[in-house]
Amino acid sequence: MKVLASLFGLLASIVLGTATYAQTSISTPFGFHTQTIQHVGPNGKQGHFTLVGSPAFTKGSSTIEEIFGISNQFGLAQGDFTEADKIWIHDPETDYWSQIYYQTPQWPFFTEGWKQIGQGDLDASTVKIPQNASIFLQSGVGVSDRPASHSVAFAYLLNIPPCTNYEAKPGTFNFFSRSAPVGIPLRDTSLENSPGYTKGDQHNSADVLWLPNGVWNARIYGYSQFFYTDDLPPFFTAGWKQVGKGDEDMGHVLLTQSFVIQTKGPGGNIAICNPFATKVTTAAPGAPPSPEVDVTIDLDLDRFVVSWVSAGRNIRYSIEAWDEWSRQWSRVIVNDPVSSGERIYNWASLEMRSAVGRIACEWIIPDMQ
Q1: N or C: which end of the chain has fewer CB within 10 A?
Q2: Are 217 and 210 spatial neighbours (Cβ–Cβ below 8 Å)?
């Protein structure tokens, strides 16, 4: 496997050693992100809640088994419902929270597998997590030697439209997930132009954007609060502000993978635009076939792994990475040609925390058929 350590990191330029041709096809983009799960609360006890952004899959909503593994390959603490980690999934239509956990065998009451609290021994592995929704992970109390926190990782193929649409309910907290693993500066999201977002001249009237920050304070754990105001001299200039920071411009702050919108207005459609989206798909007539990409997380080696099957030795496969600061794709790895049917593997360290990539496919010898 070729390492992607420079991928998404150094973004070095690579000059091809042999000539390639203009016909290029691009794979479905892929990516990963990690988030820190806080197990211990301010009282020193386990059972803490962490807001987690669910992955954006190409096919829409995904099931518990697809994200966490049919046998809990994700590695949540397991046991009965009093001691296992719990996945909280919100239904905005009913305002009901489902609680899913991985049950160890407990004859004659429970078989092993994913269960939902209140549903007995019924299989809960097919419960869906809606696309672009956030979930909560509640740390269980059954692990005596657990650290205060640790990181979890999600790998996925990306479905990134120019703008992602959400429906914010009025007068409540709405739990959403960013549509890509790379950050988007608040000033570039266009969130403030959404018909469902209420601006305000101070945070008591504006809808409030809550972003996890992982920092304890006297009132609440782990969130910074932001709002958008129009120009209001001499108190505010137009732009994103942080509660408690006066008129300081916060447009550079990156939208986190998971976030909450507290609606103080009527709510409605929220559209968050992504400058990355318009640069995802490119193709040329006569280009090689685009590969079907598989992605996974290797927990043993702390790696994000991407693989695909070669369509022939006359095709050069390169990894391109998205740089969220320059907003450009950069070629970072060029794989050696391999025979048709041979699987190619590349990987990146999870220490990078998040990344987006794609595969560019070019003829080395043009297809003469």
Answers
A1: C
A2: no
For residues 122 and 114, give the distance between their C-alpha atoms in angstroms, rounded to a whole number.
Answer: 8
Given a contact cutoff of 8 angstroms between Cβ atoms, the answer to whether 229 and 206 are in contact is yes
Largest CA distance in the chain: 70
Q: What is the pLDDT of residues 236-246, one digit of tens each?
A: 899 999 998 99
Higher pLDDT, 261 or 287: 261
CB 128 within 8 A of CB 148: no
Residues 83 and 141: beta-carbon distance below 8 Å: yes
Q: Is the pTM of this model over 0.85?
A: no
* Residue 364, pLDDT above cutoff 80: yes
* CB distance 150 to 214 below 8 Å: no
Give how far the C-alpha of residue 31 lies from the chain's centroid of Cα atoms, to the nearest Å: 8
Place of tokens 């809606």: 130
Residue 82 CB neighbours (<10 A): 9
3-state secondary structure of 221: coil
> What's the Cα-to-Cα distance from 150 to each of 185, 274, 328, rounded to whole Å?
26, 29, 32
